[in-house]
Amino acid sequence: MPDWKHPPRLFIPGPVKVSDDVLQQLARPTLGHRTQEYMQLHGETVQLLKRMLFTDQHVFLSTSSGSGIWEAAIRNCVAPEETVLCTCCGAFSDKWAEVVTLCGREADVLEVAWGQAITPELLDEKLAAGNYAAVTLVYNETSTGLANPVYAISEMMKAKHPDVLVFVDSVSAMVGLPLHFDDLGWDVTFASVQKAFAIPPGLAVAAVSNRALEKSLSVPQRGYYFNFELWAKNAAKDQTLVTPNIPHIMALHYQCSKLIDEGMERVWKRHGEMAQYVRHWAGEKFSIFCDARYPSDTLTTIRNVMGIDVAKTIAAVREKHGTLFSDGYGKLKQETFRIAHMGDITLGELEELLGWIDEEIG
Ligand SMILES: Cc1ncc(COP(=O)(O)O)c(C=O)c1O
Q1: What tens digit of pLDDT does each residue of 24-65 get?
Q2: Residue 4 clears pLDDT 80, i.e. is over it
Q3: 3-state secondary structure (DSSP) of residue 111
Q4: What are the backbone angles phi and psi of residue 137, rounded to the nearest 5°?
Q5: 243 phi and psi angles, rounded to 5 deg
Q6: pLDDT tens-digit profile of 56-113?
Q7: Of 31, 56, 112, 168, which one's alpha carbon is 20 to 30 angstroms from that of 85?
Q8: C-beta separation of 70 from 189 below 8 A
């Protein structure tokens, strides 16, 4: 019987396993959110994040999950009469396109098959043929386990479409994959902390460019809770617009300090090594779902070519070892399964997990 008080160790692609030392941060005495203590916590956390994201522009903390920033980017930075080009290559990029429409903006779609990447060439061609205020892109498609070639895309954008705003969902990429916000020339990017930050869900981190903030000032009806202008006014005082999720910010401060001490190059290398290990295992028995040129370093989506009973295997590993990995997402539920290798998950734990899966599939 499931028991929420004794959950399995999580190797699903978010929320991921949270270490005990991080959980302890969430139990610290709380602070008043307009006090000097909070301002110190906020200011230090944002400075750490700026170093991790290689930016001198705005970094905001949002008491929401990452999806809130899908909406914030559109409502703040795209005028009602403007059109957004939404690149779609899996469940989450599809969803963002839907959110654009739900926000009342015109969405045009550049779509490739699930498992394929958005390439600079495809994007360039589509942008050249239309008139777009912004483009949406998912860095790491958590459904297909594909990391889009965002560095090459950004070079193309800067060279050929410098006036188009670039919004990038880094929900399952940030921390695990390189992200040099200012050099990439992005305008909005964001993550939920339950992914590679390895914190329980309930907070999002967003980087916003100066030009995105400036553009937002001319956009009508931006709402209140996700209003970048109001966020920036409060951030200037090391505060947030509304009462934030302070325990999560304490945990974020703790995790960011550890990551900065480790060094981002080493953090990305660590994720790369875990990914290599899982991909090697997957390649011997199954195959990788996505185009092999663009595999993600934070999770692997494995094509079930052996025809194993995925649900039964997941249940057996959970039952015997108190450990949970994931089935496929959405329409890939039966066809694939997914293993996360991000955050505080270790290579040793992955070896253990893959060994247990081996025992089940024979
Ligand atoms: C790429 C991507 N974008 C957005 C989301 C939505 O994140 P949240 O549920 O934290 O808002 C997810 C969740 O897995 C995701 O993987």
Answers
A1: 999 999 999 999 999 999 999 999 999 999 999 999 999 999
A2: yes
A3: strand
A4: -145, 140
A5: -60, 120
A6: 999 999 999 999 999 999 999 999 999 999 999 999 999 999 999 999 999 999 999 9
A7: 56
A8: no
Rounded to 5, what percent of the chain is helix, strand, coil?
Answer: 45, 15, 40
What does the chain come to in residues? Answer: 362
Alpha carbon distance 218, 241 (integer Å): 20
| pLDDT-derived band at 291, boundaries 50, 70, 90 | very high
Q: At what angle do helices 36-53 and 246-262 cross, to 10 degrees?
A: 40
Q: Give the DSSP H or E segment for 85.
A: strand 83-88
Judge contact between 169 and 14, C-beta under 8 A: no
Q: Quickly state the pLDDT bin for 246 (edges 50, 70, 90).
A: very high
Among 64, 65, 332, the mutation site with the greatest number of ligand 1 atoms within 8 A of its Cβ is 65
Pocket-forming residues, ligand 1, beta carbon under 6 Å:
14, 65-67, 92, 138, 142, 169, 171-172, 192
Report yes or no on whether pTM surpasses 0.70: yes
Ligand 1 atom closest to the Cα of residue 67 is: 11
Q: What is the pLDDT at residue 276?
A: 98
Among candidate residues 76, 51, 79, 82, the one with its CA nearest the CA of residue 62: 76
Q: What is the rounded distance in angstroms from the CA atom of residue 129 to the CA atom of residue 148?
A: 22
**Structure tokens of 309?**
């009973």
